[in-house]
Design a protein that fits this description.
The protein contains two helices and five strands. It has helices at about 1-15, 95-119, and strands at about 35, 35-45, 55-65, 75-80, 85-90. The strands form two sheets. A three-stranded antiparallel β-sheet has the order 2-4-3. The longest helix is centred in the C-terminal third of the chain and has 22 residues, at about 95-119. The protein starts with a helix and ends with a helix. The model has no long low-confidence stretch (mean pLDDT about 85). The protein binds zinc ion (ZN). Zinc ion binds near residues 26, 27 and 94.
């Protein structure tokens, strides 16, 4: 129980240091997904899944199956880890493509207004 608890405390400490998700310049919503790296792990079927011990932020651990490999007798799975600051932002600085389009349409409409008034 001892080492588990300190691992958890370590994770909490990391969580507080993590970068905040970026905010969309148009609607103000937070966006971006954690840019996670996947580490494949393998362990003897007689033992529990080994905990992640690196210095990245653990997002998720998962076992592929409960059935041991017929040759090695091992189980395998993955730790998904995050560096605590990198996000996937395909439409930066907007949250979504839809939001970027909405911004573009409004900007276009605004740009047309002076011309209309002059006419
Ligand atoms: Zn947005």
């Amino acid at each position: 129980m001892g080492p588990r608890k300190s691992d958890f405390t370590e994770q909490l400490k990391r969580a507080r240091q993590m970068s905040k998700r970026p905010k969309c310049v148009h609607c103000g919503q937070s966006y971006g997904q954690r840019d996670v790296t996947t580490i494949r792990i393998e362990w003897p079927a007689t033992q529990p899944m080994p905990p992640y011990k690196g210095n990245m932020v653990l997002s998720k651990s998962e076992a592929a199956t409960n059935i041991p490999h017929s040759v090695t007798g091992n189980l395998f799975g993955w730790h998904h880890v995050w560096d605590g600051e990198t996000f996937v932002k395909p439409y930066e600085p907007f949250c979504t493509l839809r939001c970027a389009l909405d911004y573009a349409r409004r900007a276009y409409a605004r740009s047309r207004q002076p011309a209309l008034r002059r006419a």
